[in-house]
Amino acid sequence: MTIRAKLFSSATALGAAAAGAPASAASGWGDLNMPRGVTEISRKIYDLHMTIFWVCVAIGVLVFGAMIWSLIAYRKSRGAVADVTLVHNTKVEFIWTVVPVFILIAMAVPAARTLVEIEDTSKTELTIKVTGFQWGWQYDYLDDGVAFFSHLDRASNAARELLSGIDPNTVDHYLLNVDNPLVVPVATKVRLLITAADVIHSWWVPAFGVKKDAIPGFVNEAWFRVDADQPGLYRGQCAELCGRDHGFMPIVVDVRSKADFAAWLKEKAAAQKEPAAPATAPPGATPVPPGNTTAP
Amino acid sequence: MAEPLTHAAPHEDHDHKPHGWRRWVYATNHKDIGTMYLIFACTMFFIGGLLAMLIRLELFRPGLQFFDPQLFNSFTTMHALIMIFGAIMPGWTGLANWMIPMQVGAPDMALPRLNNLSFWILPFAFTLLLGSLFVPGGAPAGGWTMYPPLVLQTGASFPMLIFSIHLMGASSILGAINVIVTIMNMRAPGMTLLRMPLFVWTWLITAYLLIAVMPVLAGAVTMLLTDHFFGTTFFTAAGGGDPVMFQHIFWFFGHPEVYILILPAFGIISEVIPTFSRKPLFGYEAMVYAVASIAFLSFIVWAHHMFTVGMPLAAQLFFMLSTMLIAVPTGVKVFNWTATMWKGSLSFEPPMLFALAFLFLFTIGGFSGLMLAIVPADYQYQDTYFVVAHFHYVLVPGSIFGMMAGVYYWLPKWTGHMYDLRLATWHFWLSAIFVNVLFFPQHFLGLAGMPRRIPDYAVQFTDWNMVSSIGAFGFGLSQLLFPYIIWKCVRGGERIGNKAWEGAHGLEWELPSPPPYHSWTEPPSDAVIARGAAH
Q1: Which CATH number covers residue B294?
Q2: Is residue B132 part of a domain?
Q3: Residue B1, domain member (yes or no)
Q4: What contacts A115, CB < 8 A, 6 or more positions away?
Q5: How many angstroms separate the CA of residue B325 from the nearest CA in chain A?
Q6: Of A26, A53, A93, B57, which is most buried, counting CB atoms within 10 Å of its CB?
Q7: Within-domain flag for B257
Q8: Per-position b or e across B254-268, b if 16+ CB within 10 A of its CB
Q9: pTM
Q10: Mutant choice from B151, B288, B380 vs A, greatest count of A C-beta within 10 A
Q11: In this predicted model, what pLDDT tens digit does every residue of B169-211 receive, in sequence order?
Q12: Chain B residues lying within 8 Å of A71, measured CB to CB
C-alpha cells in the first residue's frame, strides 16, 4: 500500500467510525480500509466499496440523526407528551419505501458493469493453473512446461509452531511469505485456472481484487492485469477454511517486467527439463518432487 | 363475562401441577417449558461465550500461544453451532412458550406434550454435540457451515455432529408446529390476526420459515452422512457429485435461518419501543408486511453467501439484486421504529436501552450487509473479518440484545417482582460499550485483509485484534450480571401489579404478575382485547 493510499484510507475510515485512532505507519492502527490495489479492476472494486460506504454514511446520518433527535427532544423527563395519533402516514411511508429502491438501482448499475468486466476472461496472454492443496499452492505454467509448489516459508513455519518462542515481529513478512512465489509479468492479462486437489481453498490477492474458490473436480477462472508501473511483491492468503493449517498457506505473487519474466521463465523451463531437478531448487526452498507436475 | 380473570382466586385455579422433578420432566405447562428453554439457552450462551473468549485469547497476539490450530478450528465451529442452535433458537422458543399463549388469550400452547418432547430433545442433541469434544480426532473443525469435502475429514465426531443436527432440527420443527397451531387455533375470540402483537406475528412467520428449511438442512447433512459412510458421492466430483451443490442446499436453509434468528427480535423491539415511547407502534400493518416480505425474500438470496464459488454471471446478478432488495423492507422497519419514537414521551428503562442499542447497531449491521451485496466488493470482503463483523453486529446487538430486551421487559410479569433496575442498567452499558470494542475493529481487520477462521495472523493485524480481544473479555464477563439479576428477581423484589410498565399494552399485562399457572382459563373479553391492541 502506498503512503498516499494509506493516508487516504485512514482518513476515510476515521471519518466514518470517528474512532480516534492514530494512523501510525509503523503499527497496524492505520490499516483501516481496503487497499486500492494495482489493477484496474481492483481500483474499480475499491471505488464501488467507497461509493456504497458513503451512501451508507449518508443514510446513517439521516437515520441516526432522527433517532438521536428523538432521544433528546422527546424525553419524558423533559416533559414531552406523546402524540398518540401519530401512527400512520401514507405519504411518508411511500417515500421511505420508494426512495431506497432508486438508491439501490443507482448502486446496482455500476456494480453490474464492473462484474461483467471481471467475468470477461477473453484475450488472455498467459495462463497459469493454480491448484490448492492441504496446505499450499501449486502453480503450473501450462504453455511453458514450468510447474512448482509454493509453501509457507521456513522462517514463518518455525515461528508459528505452538509456543515456538520466536517473536513473530522478528520474522520477515510473518505468515505472508512463501518459498516459491508465483511469478508473472506486468501489463499482461494473466488468466488463472483455479482448482484444488483435496478440499475447497480460495485464492485471494487483495491488491489484484481477485478471490476465487479452488474446488476439487472443478476449474474456476479468474484474471488480472497488473499496472505497467507496479512491479513488486504482492501478498495474499487462502480465504476458505481448509483444515488445520488453513491460516498457513499464503500466496505471494512476484510481478516482474516483461523482460525479467521472460528470462525467469526460460531459466525455469530449462531447469525443469533436467532430470536431476532437486539440485536446481533455489536455496531455502522446500524440496519439491520434480516429476510431480501436470504440465503437458 | 364483564371482568377479565385478573381476580381469580387461587382455589379456582386448576393448578394440579406435579411437584419436584416430575414437574419439569413431565412438564406440559407452557410457562414451565418456557422456563426450561430459557435456562437451557442461557447455559448454552455461556458455553458458547466461553469458546468465543478462548478464540479471542488465542488471537490476542500473533503466534500460537495456547491452542493447536485444529483445536482452534473446533472452537470456532462449536461456538457457532452452540450459539445458533443452542442459545438463540431455544431462547426464542422459550420466549414464545411464555408469551404467545398470554398474548393471544389462550390457557396454554395447543400441543403440550409435543411441547415437552421438543424441549427434552435438546439436552440429548447437545450432549452429543458437546461430547464430540472428547472423542478421538476432536470436535468438528470444518466450520458450522460443514462444507464438504473438508467436513468429511472429521474424525469420530462426524456422526455425532450429523445426529445432533438432526435432533436440533426435529426439536425446532416440533416447536414451530406448536407455535403455528397455537396462533391459528387458540386465539381468543376478537383477537383477529391484525390485532396480534408484533411478537406473535414475527414468531408465526419464523415458525413457517423453520418448517420450510429445517428439513432442507436435515437432507443436506444426511447426504454428508451417506457420502461419508455409505459410498455415495453427492458432493464428490470424482463420483459425479459437486461440492458446491452442498453450499447451495446449505444456504437455502442458511439464509432463512438468519431471519429465524432475527425476526422474533423485530417483534420484541416493536413492542418495547412503543411501550417506552408511550405511543402506539408507527405503521403496524406496514411492519407485518415488511416481516412477511423479508421472509419471502430470504428464500431467493441464498447464493450471496457464496459469490466466490464461480457462478454464472446471470446468477450473480440475480442474487445481487434480490439481496439488495431486502434493504427495502428492512429500511421500512427501521424507519417505523424511529417514527414510533418521534413525538413520543421517552423513558430509558433497561428494556428500552437494549432496544435502542438494537436499533443503532442492527442498522450498522444492515449497512455492512448492503455493502456485502455488491458482488465485486464482496469478492474482497468474502471470508474476511469484515463478514465476521457484519454477522456479529446483526446477531449480538441484534438477536441477543433483542432477547435481553424481551427478558427485561417481561421478567417482572413472570416473577411478579421488579428486578434491580440499577444493576440492569449497568449490564446494558457494559454490554453496549464492549460489544462495539469487540466487533467494530473487526471491520478494519477484514478490509485490511485478515481472513476469518485463522488461529494466527500477520503482525500488521496485531493492534486491532488486541482491541477486539479486550472487548471480548469485557463483554463476556459483563454477561455474568444477567443471570445474577434474573436470579435476584426470582428470589424477591418490589411487588408489581398487572402492568410492570406505564406505557405497556397487550393481553399479557391484563393478567396478574406472576400470571396464573394456566394463563387465560376463560378468553378475555373484546373490550380487554381492544384495550391491549393499542394500534
Answers
A1: 1.20.210.10
A2: yes
A3: no
A4: B313, B316, B317, B320, B375, B376
A5: 7
A6: A53
A7: yes
A8: bbbbbbbbbbbbbbb
A9: 0.91
A10: B380
A11: 999 999 999 999 999 999 999 999 999 999 999 999 999 999 9
A12: 341, 346, 356
